[in-house]
Design a protein that fits this description.
With about 200 residues, the protein is α/β, with parallel strands linked by helices. It has ten helices and six strands; from the N terminus they run H-H-H-E-E-H-H-E-H-E-H-H-E-E-H-H.
Length: about 200
């Protein structure tokens, strides 16, 4: 059986990558989930948002961020003039962990080549990590979201280039801790300034 990295590397576009994930049997979460949650949004997106894992509503509908946290995310994007259809939304895990538990390091590792290939194919101008788990997985950092947010980070591409990256709170966390929305608003303004100051 091909490894996850070999399978992902062989995909020439995002549609092929999604099809490869649907056929991939290397992640046990596939056996307990209802649906693959690959991504949502525009393949022409300049901003890529990466969360942690699908929840119950996402699992039912096969799309990331469509439950309560997704509705908040849509409002957050709307506050800086962005619609869901203008960004690319995904997770570090493509199937719901049972009971919404946190993904294991092994589950994260087996899904990571597919996420890395998504980034290579999309070539976004900016990556926004929704929560610390996504940033730690892809950037190899140890700090939590409160220490990471507000910092200018960079995701390294295989060809030697980099993609600017920011970390903000996961919408699910903001639903539990609404007082942190003021800090999330600052992050959103940073995203808006970035888009205004740079162009393809």
């Amino acid at each position: 059986m091909q490894s996850a990295r070999e399978t992902a590397a062989a995909c020439a576009d995002l549609a092929a990558l999604e099809a490869a994930l649907a056929d991939f049997d290397g992640c046990a979460l596939k056996d307990t989930a209802l649906n693959l949650c690959f991504a949502d949004g525009s393949p022409e997106a300049e901003i890529m948002l990466i969360g942690e894992a699908p929840g119950a509503e996402e699992d039912r509908r096969g799309k990331p961020f469509v439950g309560p946290s997704g509705r908040l995310l849509d409002k957050m994007l709307g506050s800086i003039g962005l619609a869901r259809g203008e960004v690319w939304i995904t997770n570090i895990i493509f199937w719901r962990p049972p009971g919404n538990r946190a993904p294991t390091s092994a589950e994260t590792a087996v899904c990571q080549p597919f996420l890395e290939r998504q980034i290579e194919l999309l070539r976004p101008r900016l990556i926004v990590f929704l929560g610390g788990a996504a940033a730690r997985a892809l950037l190899g950092l140890e700090e939590g979201v409160t220490r990471l947010r507000g910092r200018r980070l960079a995701y390294p591409l295989a060809d030697g280039g980099t993609v600017p990256a920011l970390v903000t709170f996961h919408p699910a966390y903001l639903l539990r801790q609404p007082a942190q929305k003021r800090l999330a608003w600052r992050d959103l303004l940073t995203i808006r300034r970035f888009l205004q100051s740079s162009s393809r």
